[in-house]
Design brief:
The protein has about 425 residues and is of the alpha/beta class. About 30% of the residues lie in helices and about 25% in strands. The protein starts with 5 loop residues before the first helix and ends with a helix.
């Protein structure tokens, strides 16, 4: 694999870009592996990379039913943050953000991580008090956090609707400056080439069709490219988790698959330097501006279960109304395209990284709205679980049995959203 440097970029510029080689191999599926990760998205690729880097495991395969970046990895709004407060989530996302901060150097690939800041608008004095509690917890646990007054917010983002009679009047904002955005496909390519360099075999167009079990142990996976023997298996397939879970003969999961839509406008002049978020009155909205000038934004999930990867008009109307209510200057900006990703919604809004009823099967699922920002942390913790056969102390409660124990991790304080609307 080529190691990128200023010299290699300069030389290829002089030679008509003809010197670049494929950035990862296209191997054939072998008869067996020590670890097989099912799912070639960001979580699967990151897990394989850290298994090889941190734990010295070399005989690893990543099985992807399509092509790299063809699933949720390329269907998100690229936001990275760690402003979580619940025990377990707090430590998890802060570690993930710290990994993001060094990721381009670690992978020798520019993932375009831009720490432009994450600004959550606050619409009442009570909202400011609640945000102060959350953000003080962040400060006390080693992260960055601050509250902006209305005057400071106006200086930093002058184009918002600050009218006193606005639909959502603005009183201030909660800000995490270290948060920001990254280029989602660049992260996929970076993890793929770095994992490949460490010996991981990435098998594209390889769909798992069946699971063979013996005595509580997976012995073989049947795929569209042949059968493969396994010692350990990790599922990291987002919205398709329930399908593989049933294929393994394990029944049902506390997960539902829903569509989460995203949108991008035509390019406009520089308008928004931060990630902007608000949620009030039943609305949920987030927006940033890409390097190409398009405004990238999204809102809530569609409240019905589906495996579709396309948008629909009710959500278009909903997020457009949110955009205009908070930034009226967008009224004549044209929507360029919109799309949908299939997200796995857990019943308390938090993820699973845990062992399963099968002694060599490990689960990475239930990411709700937080999958992209979690990618480095997810790979780090999931690889640690698979290699050591026990959960790290930070994720010990992110297991399937937490509902039996009554230990839900309800970060949003909103309860089991999918079940209310499923």
């Amino acid at each position: 694999m080529t190691r990128f440097s200023a010299w290699s970029v300069f030389w290829n510029g002089l030679t008509n870009q003809m010197g670049w080689k494929p950035q990862w191999r296209t191997p054939e599926l072998k008869a067996d592996y020590d670890v097989v990760i099912v799912g070639g998205g960001l979580h699967g690729l990151a897990t394989a990379y850290y298994l090889a880097k941190n734990h010295g495991i070399s005989k690893i395969a990543v099985l992807e039913k399509g092509w790299l970046g063809g699933g949720n990895a390329g269907r998100n709004t690229t936001i990275v943050r760690s402003n979580y407060v619940m025990p377990g989530n707090r430590e998890f996302y802060e570690r993930s953000l710290k990994l993001w901060e060094n990721l381009s150097f670690d992978l020798n690939y520019n993932v375009m991580f831009s720490q432009r800041g994450h600004v959550t608008l606050l619409h009442s004095p009570e909202a400011i008090d609640a945000a102060a509690r959350r953000y003080n917890t962040m400060r006390l646990t080693g992260s960055d956090a601050e509250i902006w007054s209305l005057e400071e917010l106006k200086r930093n983002i002058p184009h918002l609707n600050y009218a006193a009679d606005a639909r959502f009047p603005i009183f201030g904002a909660a800000v995490q400056r270290r948060a920001g955005t990254a280029r989602h496909d660049a992260v996929v390519w970076g993890y793929a080439r770095a994992a490949d360099k460490r010996g991981v075999e990435i098998i594209q167009n390889c769909e798992v069709l069946g699971v063979t079990r013996e005595n509580g142990h997976i012995t073989r996976l049947e795929t569209s490219r042949g059968n493969v023997g396994v010692k350990k298996v990790g599922f990291a397939v987002a919205g398709n988790t329930s399908l593989l879970w049933e294929m393994a003969g394990l029944g049902t999961l506390p997960i539902e698959s829903h569509i989460l839509q995203a949108f991008v406008t035509e390019p406009v002049k520089p308008l928004l330097d931060q990630v902007l978020v608000f949620g009030v009155g039943g609305a949920n909205f987030y927006m940033s501006q890409s390097d190409k000038g398009g405004l990238v934004f999204g809102g809530d999930i569609d409240w019905y279960k589906s495996y579709a990867q396309r948008g629909n008009l009710p959500i278009v109307q909903d997020v457009a109304e949110c955009a205009l209510s908070i930034m009226p200057c967008l009224g004549r900006v044209r929507l360029l395209r919109h799309w949908g990703g299939v997200v796995d919604m857990s019943m308390d809004g938090s993820h699973f990284i845990c062992k399963t009823p099968l002694d060599n099967l490990y689960l990475n699922a239930g990411w709700n709205y937080g999958g992209f920002k979690a990618s480095p942390g997810s790979g780090w913790y999931f690889s640690d679980l698979i290699a050591n056969d026990r959960p790290h102390s930070d994720i010990v409660n992110h297991d399937l049995k937490r509902f039996e124990r009554g230990h839900t991790i309800d970060e949003r304080g909103a309860g089991p959203d999918p079940k209310l609307h499923g």
